[in-house]
Amino acid sequence: MKNKKEEKNPGFWVATAFWVVLIISILVMSLGDNFGFEVREGDFFTYFIIAGLAVGYFIPSFIAGARKHRSGMAIVALNIFLGWTFLGWVGSLIWSLTGNVEEKKG
User: Fold this and answer.
1) Fewest CB atoms less than 10 Å from the CB: which of 6, 44, 72, 75?
2) Domain ranges within the chain, ordered by starting residue
3) What phi and psi values does residue 101 have, to the nearest 5 degrees?
4) Which one-letter DSSP state was computed for residue 34?
5) Rounded to two decimals, what is the model's pTM?
6) Of 74, 68, 60, which is closest to residue 103 (Cα–Cα)?
7) Average pLDDT value over all residues in the chain
8) pLDDT tens string 15-26
């Protein structure tokens, strides 16, 4: 019988990413006046897209963590420092999908 931690549920990660994006968007909208920029009525969609892109930037890191990749920290570092280049992001994505993962116990 599998533990709950051992089960992979991609739907959980998609839902978590959605809620993180939504919360970031709401925070930016509500705190905008405090940081000196005006929040207009149609800006929520723009902030939602920006927050979604920010979460999407770290998809290779999320995949490496969910798969328990042995080089997970190196993938995160590559994603942070070179992910802004398309080649760095694709490289970290491909690396996170390789079969170098920890073996399941039991």
Assistant:
1) 6
2) 7-49, 58-106
3) -115, 160
4) G
5) 0.63
6) 68
7) 78
8) 777 777 777 777
Amino acid at 54: A
Q: What is the pLDDT of residue 4?
A: 52
Q: Which whole number is the average pLDDT over 70-75?
A: 90
Q: How far apart are CA 15 and CA 12, in angstroms?
A: 5
Residue 103: Cβ within 10 Å count: 6
The closest alpha carbon to 21, from 53, 43, 60, 68, belongs to 53
3-state secondary structure (DSSP) of residue 35: helix
Type of residue numbered 91: G
Phi, psi dihedral angles at 39 (to 5 degrees): -100, 120
Single out the residue of 25, 27, 34 nearest to residue 52, CA to CA. Answer: 25
Q: Is residue 44 within 8 Å of 29, Cβ to Cβ?
A: yes
Integer angstrom CA distances of residue 75 from 28, 68, 91: 29, 11, 9
